[in-house]
Amino acid sequence: MSSALLDQVRAALTAARKNREADRTLLYSTLLSEFGNHEIALGHALSDAEALEVVLRAIKRRKESIEAYRKGGRTDLVDRESAELAALEKYLPPAVGPDEIRAAVKDAIKAGAKDMGAVMGKVMPAFKGRADGKLINQIVREELAAQPAA
């Protein structure tokens, strides 16, 4: 079984090769290799959710690299990593707005989650790949602070 996400990346790789885009070809072939490695580690074909985890890790690495290159004054490398980041972000599900996150956090608190770890544990899986963890963390802190002391 092949996931739709893998098929999209394979198609993007083929298009990049046809257009002789060396940077994109390298990016997509590396991503397909990472999919293969993750598949071997898990011992089964990747689901879309598992393939999305691989893309999220690749995006996280690009963001860390961009930050490091900015500190080092390497704008040429920042531009390259930013282009790769933009290409990878196309494979993420649609982003979620802060209002939807806040509603989920309030629901988790009403359901009995009273501390940061419990609320994050309930909310994070629902928004994996669709919202920034820092934003979710900030909203959880705000909502917990707004709760009356027990």
The CATH class label of the largest domain is Mainly Alpha
pLDDT < 50 runs, ≥5 residues: none
Radius of gyration: 19 Å
CATH architecture of the largest domain: Orthogonal Bundle
Please work out how many helical segments DSSP would assign: 7
Shape: globular
Percent range for β-strand residues: under 5%
Distance between the termini: 51 Å
Task: Give a quick account of the main beta sheet: strands, pairing sense, barrel closure.
Answer: none
- Order of helices and strands, N to C? HHHHHHH
CATH topology of the largest domain: Hypothetical Protein Yqey, Chain: A, domain1
What is the CATH superfamily label of the largest domain? Uncharacterised protein YqeY/AIM41, N-terminal domain
Helix/strand/pairing category: mainly alpha
What number of domains?
2
Percent helix, as a range, is over 70%
What is the tally of beta strands? Answer: 0
SSE order and pairing:
Blueprint: H1 4-18, H2 22-42, H3 48-71, H4 75-89, H5 98-110, H6 116-127, H7 133-145
Report on this structure.
The chain has helices at residues 4-18, 22-42, 48-71, 75-89, 98-110, 116-127, 133-145. The protein is globular. It contains 7 helices and no strands. It folds into 2 domains: 4-89, Uncharacterised protein YqeY/AIM41, N-terminal domain (Hypothetical Protein Yqey, Chain: A, domain1), CATH 1.10.1510.10; 98-145, Arc Repressor Mutant, subunit A (Orthogonal Bundle), CATH 1.10.10. The chain is mainly α and 150 residues long. The mean pLDDT is 84.
